Amino acid sequence: MSDALLEQAIRSHPFTRGLRPDHVARLQKAAQMVQYSSGDKVFETGDPADRFYLIRSGVIELAVASNNPPRAVQTLSEGTVLGWSWAFDRQKWQFDAKAITPIRAIEVDGAALLKECELDHEFGYLLMRRLAEVMADRLHAVRKEVRT
Predict the structure, then answer these.
(1) Cβ distance 61 to 73 under 8 Å?
(2) Residue 77 is part of a domain; what is its CATH number?
(3) pTM of this prediction?
(4) How many domains does the structure of the chain reveal?
(5) Considering only CA atoms, which of 19, 10, 14, 13 is closest in space to residue 126?
(6) 68-116 pLDDT, tens digit each
(7) Which of 16, 42, 82, 108 would disulfide-bridge 53, Cβ 3.0–4.6 Å?
């Protein structure tokens, strides 16, 4: 995919709405397009968390690997964000993620993005605020699932 198409894909994702062009460029430096087939594991609990995804199309199931089989807690689809563990010291996935349908996504390298955040603290602050919203959404989904 060309740089222009990747930039447009990043700009059009809800997670990046309102970011300045220079912030989009910082994100783009760490990004690439990826695809997963239905049934593919995107990541598993406990594996190293070194990236996150801006979902462009498809459905991903998040599950807690506490029992066999894992217990689904949330499904993610177009316009959502998958992964936040990369941003913290523990850097291990907290959920299993599996493609339910074919997935098209923008994969962002966590280490490269953290370097960009160090170079531009305003960008880092905006990114972390947005990730905090993702974490709050996951927590709400897990609470809801535990109650049922």
Answers:
(1) no
(2) 2.60.120.10
(3) 0.89
(4) 1
(5) 19
(6) 777 888 899 999 999 888 887 668 898 899 999 999 999 999 999 999 9
(7) 82
